[in-house]
């Protein structure tokens, strides 16, 4: 790692954040779809879904938070693609700049932008009746899970941002990630699903992460479920980071 890595990353992060502040509509757009889904499912479908004694908005929010992140990282891939097309990367390579700092600046920008969108979604959920008696440690645990999840998906977004041929192609990879929560415990209990689908839903990462966040919000014992969620997030982060850095080295070599 270059001795200039942290300074270079800070400078490039400032550049990316300035782009975000000049186009704040991207953050708003990122939050609009999850909020629309929150409103739709709570007020239209919520009465038909049995979640026991848990209000449906409380049951639904963890999955909506993951969809918010999956929606937001599409902009990371898009911004990275535009930088690749504009020749910014070649310009930075001709300067004494740490090579990976460019990618880290985009990743950290994604973390900041997605954090703002997540806060907006939680505030809307509170207006809709979401309540949690969870204490500060539980909220910090939820924030940590969402941070790991955001980092993992953002590094995954780096790959299409580097290799896509069109801007639409760079963004489109996020669509399956947005759809995945529908095949999990995010919207309905998995026990209501038919056999093969239930098996898939109960063993895919989104269900583990959603259940862990839901248990933290409702002050239920998390046990091994929390470690399973963290393992999914950390494992995906390690794999995505390795693939992204390998792709980047091939692109700029």
UniProtKB/TrEMBL annotation:
Chain segments annotated as transmembrane: 27-47, 59-81, 102-130, 136-158, 170-188, 224-244
A GO MF label: ABC-type transporter activity
Biological process annotations from GO: response to antibiotic
Main location: membrane
Domain ABC transmembrane type-2 intervals: 25-251
Topological relation to the membrane, as annotated: Multi-pass membrane protein
Family: Belongs to the ABC-2 integral membrane protein family.
PANTHER family documented for this protein: NODULATION PROTEIN J
UniProt-recorded name of the protein: Transport permease protein
């Amino acid at each position: 790692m270059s001795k200039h890595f942290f300074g270079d990353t800070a400078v490039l992060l400032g550049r990316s954040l300035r782009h975000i502040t000049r186009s704040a509509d991207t953050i708003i757009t990122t939050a609009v779809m999850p909020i629309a889904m929150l409103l739709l499912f709570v007020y239209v479908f919520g009465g038909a879904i049995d979640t026991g004694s848990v209000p449906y908005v409380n049951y639904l929010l963890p999955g909506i938070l993951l969809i918010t992140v999956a929606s937001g990282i599409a902009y990371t891939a898009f911004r990275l693609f535009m930088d690749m097309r504009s020749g910014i990367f070649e310009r930075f390579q001709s300067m004494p700049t740490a090579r990976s700092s460019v990618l880290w600046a985009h990743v950290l920008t994604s973390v900041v932008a997605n954090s703002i969108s997540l806060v907006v979604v939680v505030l809307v959920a509170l207006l809709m009746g979401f309540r949690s008696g969870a204490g500060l440690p539980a909220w910090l645990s939820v924030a940590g899970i969402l941070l790991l999840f955001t980092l993992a998906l953002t590094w995954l977004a780096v790959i299409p941002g580097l290799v896509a041929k069109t801007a639409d192609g760079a963004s489109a990879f996020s669509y399956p990630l947005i759809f995945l929560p529908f095949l999990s415990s995010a919207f309905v209990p998995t026990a209501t699903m038919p056999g093969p689908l239930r098996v898939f839903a109960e063993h895919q990462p989104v269900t583990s992460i959603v259940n862990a966040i839901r248990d933290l919000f409702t002050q239920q014992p998390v046990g091994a479920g929390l470690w399973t969620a963290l393992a999914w997030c950390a494992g995906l982060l390690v794999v995505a980071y390795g693939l992204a850095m390998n792709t980047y080295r091939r692109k700029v070599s």
